[in-house]
Amino acid sequence: VLRQELAQLIKDLVKTQNIAALVVTHQPDEALFLADHLCLLGGTPATLVKHWDVSRDFTPQTAFHEIVRSMQQVAA
């Protein structure tokens, strides 16, 4: 519950204050809830593996599964 409340607080602050926020998470659902853009990092040192513009690149039916699949490919 605390994680959900914090995510909502961040989302509200970004919108009402017209600011940007960088949020690092390992939770695809949390990333989708918060993001306008998602970046998947991988490797050592970390490098950009994939970038998505959430409003353009996803449909509600495909977003979560695509992110999880991409994360699994990076971990493999």
What would the keywords be for this entry?
two-stranded antiparallel sheet, alpha+beta
Fold and architecture overview:
The protein is of the alpha+beta class and 76 residues long. 53% of the residues lie in helices and 17% in strands. It is built from four helices and two strands. It has helices at 2-17, 28-34, 54-57, 63-75; strands spanning 37-42, 47-53. The protein has a two-stranded antiparallel sheet. The chain is globular. 5% of the residues are buried.
Give the CA-based shape.
globular
Tell me how many strands there are: 2
Name the assembly state.
single chain
Radius of gyration, rounded? 13 Å
Largest sheet: 2 strands, antiparallel
Output the helix-strand order.
HHEEHH
What is the end-to-end distance?
31 Å
Helical fraction? 40-55%
Strand content: 15-25%
Class based on secondary structure composition and strand pairing = alpha+beta
Please work out how many helical segments DSSP would assign: 4
* Low-pLDDT stretches: none
The averaged pLDDT comes out at 90
How are the strands of the largest sheet arranged? Answer: 1-2
What's this model, at a glance?
This protein has 76 residues and is an alpha+beta fold. The protein contains 4 helices and 2 strands; from the N terminus they run H-H-E-E-H-H. It has helices at 2-17, 28-34, 54-57, 63-75; strands at 37-42, 47-53.
Can you lay out the helices and strands and say which pair or pack?
Blueprint: H1 2-17, H2 28-34, E1 37-42, E2 47-53, H3 54-57, H4 63-75
